[in-house]
Amino acid sequence: MKKILLLSDTHSYIDERVLAYAEKADEVWHAGDIGDLAVTEALQKVKPLRAVFGNIDDHEIRKEFPLNNRFICEEVDVLITHIGGYPGRYSPAIREELRANPPKLFICGHSHILKVMPDRKLNLLHMNPGAIGKHGFHKVRTMLRFTVDQGKIDNLEVIEIKREPGYN
Predict the structure, then answer these.
(1) Nearest alpha carbon to residue 14 among 161, 138, 144, 132
(2) What's the EC number here (predicted)?
(3) Domain count, the chain
(4) What CA–CA distance (Å, rounded) separates 38 from 74?
(5) How would you classify the pairing of strands 89-90 and 124-129?
């Protein structure tokens, strides 16, 4: 069994509260818009990290992390990308891959809107952890925590951190 902390859209910001949650996980997964390699370096000091780059990420981050990251974790086929859409409205860039070879767990970021929903047509679970950074329209910073064990995704928990005033 692995405990996963899933986050996205840090936009160059990481704080001790996020790192404290990372310490309690077995792995941290980042769904893009990292913003600065200092974010991923801080996370990697705490736990193993799997990540993808997002649309705001520069060439340095794009050299370090892929556009799509597909892997098996505890018998669960996982696909992470930054701009992915959601069931019924997938991004054209990923739609065909999802239809041809759907993973069990499809993760994306980008929207800053936390969303977890099944895709019954493709028999997959879609997760978007929302945004944990300070920049964007979101009012609450969010992450997801869950376990992966012998092909099962379980113990899903939403983590909310209040945004400090004065950020756009």
Answers:
(1) 132
(2) 3.1.4.-
(3) 1
(4) 29
(5) unpaired
Q: Is residue 168 part of a domain?
A: no
Query: Tens digits of per-residue pLDDT, 61-98?
Result: 999 999 999 999 999 999 999 999 999 999 999 999 99
* Residue range 129-150, pLDDT digits in tens: 999 998 777 889 999 999 999 9
Q: Is there a domain that residue 138 lies in? A: yes
Joined tokens for residue 157: 């928990």
Residue 58 lies in a domain: yes
Which has the closest alpha carbon to 164: 5, 7, 17? 17
Backbone CA torsion sign across 84, 89, 91, 92 = positive
CATH of the domain at 85: 3.60.21.10
**What pLDDT shows up at residue 137?**
76
> How many Cβ atoms sit within 10 Å of the Cβ of residue 99?
11
Rounded Cα distance, 153 and 148, in Å: 5
Res. 30 pLDDT band, cuts 50 70 90: very high
Q: Find all residues with CB under 8 Å of 126, minimum gap 6, and list them.
A: 84, 86, 87, 106, 107, 108, 115, 116, 117, 118, 119
Q: Which domain holds residue 28?
A: 2-162
167 within a domain of the structure (yes/no)? no
